[in-house]
Design goal:
Elements: H1 4-9, E1 18-19, H2 22-25, E2 42-44, H3 49-62, E3 66-69, E4 86-89, E5 96-100, E6 105-108, H4 114-121, E7 126-127, H5 140-146, H6 153-156, E8 163-170, E9 175-179, H7 190-194, E10 202-210, E11 212-213, E12 217-225, H8 228-240, E13 247-252, H9 253-263, E14 273-281, H10 283-299, E15 304-307, H11 311-322, H12 324-327, E16 334-337, E17 340-341, H13 347-361, E18 364-369, E19 375-376, E20 378-382, H14 389-406, H15 425-428, H16 431-444, H17 471-474, E21 478-479
Parallel strand pairs: 2-4, 3-4
Antiparallel strand pairs: 1-2, 5-6, 6-10, 7-11, 8-9, 8-10, 9-21, 12-14, 12-15, 13-14, 13-18, 16-20, 17-19, 18-20
């Protein structure tokens, strides 16, 4: 029999959209970071914004924890359920509500797939710039929650740079409206604050996205190097030259092996690393920048520099890169995808240190990363069935994060903190800074019921109960419905 809490929620949704049987819950017990799992009380599957609001308000009234979930592609455990709570699955809120080519914007529901926005905009010569590796399956709501980036964030920025407006329901049940159809806004940047909150504030119901014109021309080069240091030096040289490519990506030998096995990608032989460098923009600008790029790459002494001769070859190059994370599954039954940032000038040093730490741990590590902005994605391979290997893999992941902070970087570039990195937050922020972050969270969620246990060390953030008017209501940015 369902619990009393589930029976109360059943008044809000039809029986086929409130799942509570153990075999139904199993599919939702984890996200893409499968090392963490938990069984929730139930899975709620709303189809409208009003149903989402009603669910959140019911959770607020009964103090039931809830986790919003899209496609479950989080790599930091950010959408792992909370035992004793519910999952609000948003995949059925998948409508593009408005596409305005003149204003270059799209208004979408949170369950819309990232790639679907570009597909809808393409006939108008537009596209949506953020392109995570999970672009064909990840949702815009999840992108907003974790401020996702992608291969082209070097030039175009993260999700936060493309969100113009939001309508959301906070964990208090209050409905808020942030931003609008224009970047010309007065007052605090509420959209910027909400984007990247990892589900700790509430749930986005409608997201207004900026669309950009499709590039007129591309020039994509695959360059292979004998050592990681040479590839890192080439990245530094490209950025120092003043060029701003759409993307600069790097893959090491182990990642190349995986991509070759998975999608038959063709890479120069005998390389410890390859770079993918892509220029894009007006034809005349790309032509001029290509000359400069070719000179820089020639001076970096690659084994081979292979430009894509047509659109098919360009797509083949990117297919190998975009498949790298999943392809590593061919080399190991389990792996942790880490996500840290180091200054570009220290890429070579960081990779040498990661290699040394990996050898000391007795493990293997494939490196795939956004070299242009120093966003590392070490993929630590282990076998969870072997006693102690997961512990060693997690310890190695922690050492890599500490190294990133010590180098002047960050514990996350785009995957978020989630469950995986919460104990490393004090390595990056002081106690006073973490207290400030917790107080901001409490302004949106005084009871701590929205995605509890994530981001902050030691589990749930303290519930700073607010009295009188809500702080955001005082600022005139929320409405009560």
């Amino acid at each position: 029999m369902p619990s009393s809490a589930v029976r109360r929620l059943s008044a809000l949704l039809p029986a086929d959209r409130l799942l509570w049987q153990p075999e139904q819950l199993a599919a939702y017990q984890s996200d893409a970071l499968t090392a963490y799992s938990a069984l929730p009380l139930a899975i709620a599957m709303p189809e409208t914004a009003d149903e989402v609001i009603a669910l959140v308000r019911a959770c607020r009234a009964d103090k039931i924890p809830f986790v919003a979930r899209g496609s479950g592609t989080s790599l930091s455990g950010g959408s792992v359920p909370v035992a004793g709570g519910i999952v609000i699955a948003l995949n059925r809120l998948n409508r593009i509500l408005r596409l305005d080519p003149a204003q270059r914007l799209a208004v979408v529901e949170p369950g819309v797939i990232n790639l679907a926005v570009t597909t809808a905009a393409a006939p108008h010569g537009l596209h949506y710039a953020p392109d995570p590796s999970s672009q064909p399956i990840c949702t815009i709501g999840g992108n907003v929650a974790f401020n996702s980036g992608g291969a082209h964030c070097l030039k175009y920025g993260m999700t936060s740079n493309h969100v113009l407006g939001l309508r959301a329901v906070l964990a208090t049940g209050e409905v808020v409206g942030f931003g609008g159809p224009s970047r010309e806004q007065l007052g605090p940047d509420w959209c910027g604050l909400f984007t990247g909150n990892e589900g700790l504030f509430g749930i986005a119901l409608e997201i207004t996205l900026q669309l950009l014109p499709k590039a007129e021309c591309f020039h994509t080069v695959l360059a292979g190097y004998r050592t990681l240091e040479q590839a890192g030096d080439a990245v530094s040289a490209i950025v120092a030259s003043g060029l701003l490519p759409g993307a600069i990506e790097m893959m090491d030998a182990l990642a190349l092996e995986a991509a070759t096995a998975a999608v038959h990608a063709d890479y120069p032989p005998g390389c410890e690393a390859v770079l993918i460098v892509e220029l894009e923009g007006p034809r005349e600008v790309v032509a001029a920048d290509r000359v400069r790029l070719d000179g820089i790459l020639a001076a970096s002494a690659p084994v081979e520099a292979r430009p894509a001769r047509n659109a098919a070859e360009r797509l083949a190059i990117w297919k190998g890169r975009k498949s790298a994370f999943s392809a590593v599954g061919r080399l190991s039954p389990d792996f942790i995808v880490q996500d840290g940032v180091v200054p570009r000038r220290r890429l070579g040093e960081a990779l040498r240190r990661i290699a040394a730490m990996t050898r000391e741990a007795g493990l293997r590590c494939a490196n795939v990363f956004h070299a242009g902005d120093g966003n590392l994605h070490p993929l630590i391979l282990y076998n969870g069935r072997n006693p102690g290997e997961l512990t060693r893999a997690e310890a190695l992941a922690g050492r890599i994060l500490k190294m990133c902070v010590a180098m002047g970087g960050s514990i996350t570039g785009e995957h978020g903190v989630g469950l995986e990195k919460r104990d490393y937050l004090p390595d990056m922020f002081s106690a006073d800074e973490i207290d400030c972050l917790q107080r901001i969270r409490a302004a949106f969620d005084p009871l701590g019921i929205a995605n509890p246990g994530k981001m902050f060390p030691g589990g749930e953030a303290p519930a700073f109960v607010q009295h009188g008017l809500h702080p955001l209501e005082k600022a005139g940015v929320i409405s009560r419905e």
